[in-house]
Design a protein that fits this description.
Shape: globular
Distance between the termini: 27 Å
Number of helices: 14
Strand content: under 5%
Radius of gyration: 26 Å
Largest sheet: none
Structural class: mainly alpha
Number of strands: 0
C-alpha cells in the first residue's frame, strides 16, 4: 500500500511536470495571478466585509490599485531611462576615442616598464578584431523581430494575468477547483490542508519579499544620492529589483550601476573623479547588501517560511547550480511547497520531521 502511494505521488509529479512543459505560459500566467490574488485577498476581504462593497467591485478596486502602483513606478523611472539614453546619445565619441588612445598608451608604457613587451599596434589590432567578431554576430533584423515578439507576448501575458487575477480575487475557491481536477477524491481533504499551509506561508513570504525590495530601493537610492551619484533613483530602483535574485542580484545591480556611472562620466573625461565615483557605488551596494543579508533576509526568509537561514542558503545554492538564476529566484517558494507536501505525506521520515518541525 505504501509503495502504491509513493508511486501515485511520483506519477502525479511527473504529470504536473508534463503539463508545465507543454503549457508553460498558461501555467506561469495562472501562478502569477494566484500570487497576486494572495497578496490582494486581505484588501478584498477588508473592502467586502468591513466596507460592505460587493466582492466583484472589491476585486476590481484591488486590481486597479496594483495597476496604479505599477504605473506610479513606471512614471517615476521612465523619465530617468530617457535621460540616461540621451546622455549615451550625446557622448562625443571622437573625444572619447582620443582619451581611450591616451589611456592605452599609458597602459602600454606601464606594461613595458614591468617587462611585458607589447606594442600599441598589437592592442589596437586585438580590439579591432574583437569588435569585428562581435559585430558579425549582431543581426539587427533578428533583434527587432525578437523585440516585437517579446512585446506582443508581454501584452498578452499582462492581459491574461489581470483577467485571471480578477476571478481569483472574487472567488478564492476557483484556483482550488482547478487544482482538484488533478487530485484523486481520497486525497482532496489532505491536499486542501496542504494548500492552506502553502497559501499562508507563501503569502507571508511574498509580502515580506515586496517589503525587502522596497527597503532596498530606498536604501540604495538614498545612499547613491548622498554620495552625489547622478540618476540615483533609477539605479536604486534597478538594484532593488535585481535583489529578488538571492546573492547574485546585488552583484548584477552594482555592475550595471558602475557601467552607467562610467558612461555618464565619459563626457567629462576619464579622471580620478570616475574612480572615486565607482568606489562610492561599490561602497553603497556593499553596505546595503550587508544590511539586507544580516537584517532583512534573516527576518523575511526565516520567519516567513519558518526555515533556518543556513538551510535557505544551501537550498538557494543548490537551485542556482542546477537551474541558474530562475532557480535561485524560485528556490524558496518551491522548497516551501515541497516541505509542506513532505510533512503531510511523509511525516514518519526522520529527515522530514527535522526539516518541517518549525512549520
Amino acid at each position: 500500500m505504501e509503495k502504491r502511494k509513493i508511486l501515485g505521488i511520483i506519477l502525479g509529479i511527473l504529470l504536473l511536470l508534463a503539463v508545465f512543459y507543454w503549457l508553460s505560459d498558461l501555467v506561469i500566467y495562472t501562478l502569477v495571478a494566484f500570487l497576486i490574488s494572495m497578496l490582494g485577498r486581505p484588501l478584498v476581504k477588508l473592502l467586502h466585509e468591513k466596507v460592505k462593497i460587493p466582492a466583484a467591485l472589491s476585486s476590481l478596486i484591488v486590481i486597479f490599485f496594483f495597476i496604479g502602483i505599477l504605473s506610479l513606478i513606471i512614471w517615476l523611472i521612465f523619465p530617468l531611462f530617457v535621460k540616461q539614453a540621451q546622455q549615451i546619445a550625446e557622448l562625443d565619441y571622437t573625444t572619447l576615442s582620443s582619451q581611450t588612445t591616451l589611456l592605452g598608451n599609458e597602459v602600454v608604457s606601464w606594461l613595458n616598464q614591468k617587462g611585458v613587451e607589447i606594442t600599441e599596434e598589437e592592442i589596437a589590432g586585438y580590439f579591432s578584431h574583437s569588435l569585428s567578431e562581435v559585430w558579425q554576430h549582431i543581426n539587427l533584423q533578428s533583434i527587432v523581430s525578437s523585440l516585437a515578439s517579446k512585446l506582443t507576448s508581454l501584452a498578452i501575458g499582462l492581459f491574461s494575468v489581470i483577467f485571471l487575477s480578477f476571478f481569483f480575487l472574487r472567488d478564492e475557491r476557483i484556483f482550488k477547483k482547478m487544482l482538484f481536477l488533478f487530485v484523486p477524491d481520497r486525497l482532496v481533504e489532505r491536499t486542501e490542508k496542504v494548500l492552506k499551509s502553502v497559501e499562508h506561508l507563501l503569502s507571508r513570504y511574498f509580502v515580506g519579499l515586496s517589503l525587502e525590495v522596497f527597503c532596498m530601493m530606498t536604501l540604495l537610492s538614498l545612499g547613491l544620492w548622498l554620495c552625489g551619484i547622478e540618476n540615483a533613483l533609477l539605479y536604486g530602483c534597478l538594484g532593488g529589483l535585481f535583489n529578488v535574485i538571492p546573492y547574485l542580484g546585488p552583484v548584477i545591480g552594482a555592475a550595471l550601476t558602475c557601467l552607467f556611472t562610467i558612461v555618464n562620466s565619459l563626457q567629462a573625461g576619464i579622471s580620478m573623479d570616475l574612480v572615486w565615483a565607482l568606489v562610492k557605488v561599490i561602497g553603497v551596494f556593499t553596505a546595503c547588501n550587508l544590511i539586507d543579508n544580516f537584517v532583512l533576509q534573516v527576518t523575511i526568509y526565516s520567519n516567513s517560511v519558518k526555515a533556518h537561514p543556513l538551510e535557505i542558503f544551501f537550498v538557494i545554492l543548490i537551485a542556482g547550480t542546477l537551474t541558474g538564476i530562475w532557480g535561485m529566484i524560485l528556490a524558496i517558494p518551491c522548497y516551501t511547497v515541497l516541505r509542506i507536501l513532505a510533512k503531510e505525506f511523509f511525516k514518519d521520515a526522520k529527515l522530514v520531521r527535522e526539516l518541517t518541525k518549525r512549520i
